[in-house]
Amino acid sequence: MEGDVGTGSGEPLILSDELLINRGRGRLCYRHPVDRSLVIKVPAGPGSAAQAANRKEWRGYRDLIRRHGRLPCVSHCHGFAATDRGIGLICDCIRDADGAIARSIYDIIVYDDACDIERILAVADSFGRFLLEHDIRLFDLNPKNIALVQEQDGGYRAVALDLKGRFDNNEFVPLSSYIGFFARRKMRRRTRQLLERIRFFHANRDRYRARQQYRRRSDL
C-alpha cells in the first residue's frame, strides 16, 4: 500500500484497549504502542466507508503538503501500518507543552467548567481566518476535530486532526474542491458554523455530558 511504513518487525501492532484515545463516527484513535509521538487511526468497523476514511485523509494530507509544505496547524500523517484491528493510518500525537495529550475544543468546552469560552472562540476564529488567508482547504471544522495545544505561556494553538479536506466533499458538484472562489466562500461558512457549534455545545454541555455517561454505561 502507498504510504506503508510497516512495523519494523513484520508483525502487526497490538492496539490494546488502554491505548484508546477517542472514538469517531467511523474510526478509532489509539496511542501508538511503541512511539509516544504518534497515534494510529483504524476503522471502527468492516464497512467500506470506515475503510475509506483513512485513504481520504492520506490523500488530503499529501495534497496539503504539495500545496503548502509542512504546516504548523495540522497533525501530520506518516503512512499506513498493519495492526491487530486492521490497517491504520499513523499520525502525529498532538501534545501540550507539559506532554499531556492535547484536548479537542469539544472536550474543553463540554467537560471543563472553568474554560474561558470567549478565549476559545477567539482562538477558533483566528484559526479559521488563518486557513482562509492561506487557502488551506480543510472543510470539516468540527470542534471534535480540532485540538487546542496549551503552550508554555498558557496560550492555545489550534491544530486540525482530520485532514480529509477536499477529498471528503459532499457537494453534488464539488466546486469548492477545485475553484478558489468557492473554496474561500465555503471556508468562511465553515468558520461561522464552527463558532456557532462551540457556543451551542458549551451552552448545552450538561446534556452532552449526560449523553456520554449513558453511552459509557451502555458499553459495559
Question: What would you note in describing this structure?
Answer:
The protein has 220 residues and is an alpha+beta fold. The chain folds into two domains: 17-92, 2-Layer Sandwich (Phosphorylase Kinase, domain 1); 103-212. Helix content is 38%, strand content 19%. The protein has a five-stranded antiparallel sheet with strand order 1-2-3-5-4, covered by helices on one side. The chain has a three-stranded antiparallel sheet with strand order 6-7-8. Helix 3 runs antiparallel to helix 4 (180-203). The longest helix has 24 residues, at 180-203. The mean pLDDT is 86.
List its traits:
Phosphorylase Kinase, domain 1, globular, 2 domains, 19% strand, 5-stranded antiparallel β-sheet, 220 residues, alpha+beta, 3-stranded antiparallel β-sheet
Short description:
This protein is α+β, with helices and mostly antiparallel strands and 220 residues long.
